[in-house]
Predict the structure.
Amino acid sequence: MEWTAPPVVRTADLGSLGTLPERQMLEGWLQWHRETLMAKCAGLQSVDLARTTVEPSSLSLLGLVRHMAEIERWWFRRSFAGEALGDVFTGPEDGNEGLDGVDAGDAPRAFASFLTEVRLSDAAAAGRDLDETFRSARGASFSLRWVYVVMIQEYARHNGHADLLRERTDGATGDSG
């Protein structure tokens, strides 16, 4: 039986984010973007998730899910929390962090890995001050606040890609798929 991406229940409401304190606003926007990526995939079978539909690009929805699992791990756990971890799929040295080498049969594992990385990223940031900093491998200093902002922009950029991929797959448009 072909695997199908599960439906998404929205937990982040953009309308309620406008007047929240900074931390809650950043967490809410990040959660909304995470859910948007999952909504773009919801209801599609693994073969459709792995399909490249915007030629000549090699992007696929499944590749984006894999990529964002890598990016969650990289910024929250490896960089900010300083955890000594390997890659989920592929790493920065290959330049694409999980976007390439997609196999439809890997969809269940990729989605499970993504959800695990989201949960562990949230745990790495829980209780930590937005002003807390870390040094990158190149010696630059970044704050947890910066990590939230860079993650929101990363999702926003790739959710735009996901919009095009989903529309070319089955015609679905909008934030819910």
Observations:
- The chain has a mean pLDDT of 92.
- The chain has one domain: 18-170.
